[in-house]
Amino acid sequence: MRKIGLFGGSFNPPHKGHLHLAEILHDSLALDEVRLIPAKIPPHKSDRDYAPAENRLEMCRLMAEAHDWLTADDFELTQKQISYTYYTAKHFAKTCPEDRLYLLAGGDMLASFTEWYRWKDILQMVTLACIAREEGEYQKLLPYAENLRQTGEIILVNAESFAVSSTKIRDMLRKNQNCSCYLSQNIVKYIKEKNLYTGSGAGLYQVKDKIAFLENRLTPKRFRHSCNVARVARQLAQIYGGDLEKAYFAGLVHDICKEIPFEEQYQQMMQSGYPPDQAELHSKKLWHGIAGAYFIRTEFGIEDEDILNAVRYHTVGRAGMSLLEEIIYMADMISEERDYKGVDKMRRLAQKDLKMAMLEALRDALVSVMKKNGFLSRNTVEAYHYYLLQAQETKDHKSIEDRKS
Ligand SMILES: [Fe+2]
Ligand SMILES: [Fe+2]
Q1: What is the DSSP letter of 32?
Q2: pLDDT tens string for the chain (405 positions)?
Q3: CATH classification of 207-399 is 1.10.3210.10, yes or no?
Q4: Does domain 3-194 have CATH number 3.40.640.10?
Q5: Interval between CA 233 and ligand 2 midpoint (Å)
Q6: Residue-wise burial string across 99-127, b where 16 or more C-beta atoms lie within 10 A, e elsewhere
Q7: Closest Cα partner for 286 from 314, 264, 263, 310?
Q8: Are 129 and 102 a contacting pair, CB within 8 Å?
Q9: What separation in Å is there between the alpha carbon of 381 and the centre of ligand 2?
Q10: From CA 89, how far away is CA 106, in angstroms rounded?
Q11: Is the pTM of this model over 0.90?
């Protein structure tokens, strides 16, 4: 049985005060792990005050990097709606049935806990761990804790406060003041890189705007597919150490030109500067990859070659694909609404061994084209050989290692 602390919050941004609390919880309760669970924020909140979900998650991940007992968890962010604590507790109780769960609660949360949705059920699933930080707060919270102890387990911990507020930090960031006493260096760097909290747009790629754009431009089915691909791309990026934000963005826009008339797709493809191979030229349904890359470059000003290539090659693949290209190609194959025979096997393989999954997916793609007497894309054939060679090299390497041992 492991002891796991659940630490929810907006983490906007995650700062040293959060880390201080997580450390107290970890040390005083001898926890094996603390999970930072960024909360979903209502979509109408402004960019100036709220960083997008994927950025808050990534900043939590950056904060967790230096501590092997700390992790970032995207459960609440992946929910359709803002999650009640009851559902979050239920999720972890279900996914960690052998473990003991501690829910970190602030003083105000403890005082109003009996107003919470299904609070009695929450206390059946978790121990409430409340840290009293202010002078006299411990004494003030005692009667609330006593009252709740009739229903579940409550732990009160007295700790020194670490005075810092996210509002103040955001204000300092906007004024370009030095925040390194409140934020770790990697988070400061990330905020600068992504241009967060400036009010100039939701992150580097202004994802919120793009979602609205796609919802208008695509049929509901294609829009859902795009959102699903974005989500699974982000998960794959997390597994394989890719850039979560780029993966999400590229997944979101990969089919952006799929539903415009073929003449337009053709024109964009021919103007793009990306030469189509023979099969791409002959097969209309492959045009949207090249047209899509051209579109996001010219309309959205995307200059990142990796994102452009991920969109350009998501239809056919190519030899020597980058991690992001592989992620988008594969996310497109295994997104939630896909239901072809063998999709579950492909999903498992993609999470375990991305390169092997690429090999399988490319083989399936080639076989399917041949069955229909279609033209084989040179890019796909080269990609297939590339991954085949990699698989063989891995196998050879493994057998040499086995022989040595
Ligand atoms: Fe596509
Ligand atoms: Fe797609």
Answers
A1: S
A2: 899 999 999 999 999 999 999 999 999 999 999 999 999 876 545 556 778 888 999 999 999 999 999 999 999 998 877 778 999 999 999 999 999 999 998 777 888 899 888 999 999 999 999 988 877 888 999 999 999 999 999 999 988 777 788 888 988 887 778 888 999 999 998 998 888 887 554 455 778 778 888 998 999 999 999 999 999 999 999 999 999 989 999 999 999 999 999 999 999 999 999 999 999 999 999 999 999 999 998 888 787 899 999 999 999 999 999 999 999 999 999 999 999 999 999 999 999 999 999 999 999 999 999 999 999 999 999 999 999 999 998 877 777 777 776
A3: yes
A4: no
A5: 12
A6: ebbbbbbebebbbebeebeebeebbebbb
A7: 314
A8: yes
A9: 20
A10: 16
A11: no
Rounded to whole angstroms, the Cα distance separating 269 from 313 reads: 13
Strand (E) or helix (H) holding 187: helix 185-194
The C-alpha atoms of residue 321 and residue 361 are separated, in whole angstroms, by 14
Question: How many angstroms separate the Cα of 43 from the Cα of each of 10, 49, 50, 54, 227?
Answer: 13, 12, 10, 13, 16
Ligand 1 centre distance from Cα of residue 332 (Å): 7
**Which residues are CB-contacts of 232 (< 8 A; sequence separation ≥ 6)?**
251, 331, 334, 335, 336
Centre of ligand 1 to C-alpha 128, Å, is 47
Residues present in the chain in total: 405
CA of 224 to the centre of ligand 2 (A): 10
Distance of CA 246 to the CA centre of its chain: 10
DSSP state of 4: E
**Quick one: DSSP state of residue 5?**
E
Cα(3)–Cα(32) distance, integer angstroms: 5
Residue type, 136: G
**Distance from residue 264's CA to the centre of ligand 1 (Å):** 16
Centroid of ligand 1 to alpha carbon of 175 (angstroms): 43
- Ion ligand 2 nearby residues (CB, 5 A): 255, 332
Query: Rounded to whole angstroms, what are the CA distances from 173 to 162, 197, 371?
Result: 19, 7, 58
Per domain, the residue ranges of the chain are 3-194, 207-399
Output the CA 302–ligand 2 centroid distance in Å. 19
DSSP characters over 287-333: HHHHHHHHHHHHHH----HHHHHHHHTTTT--TT--HHHHHHHHHHH
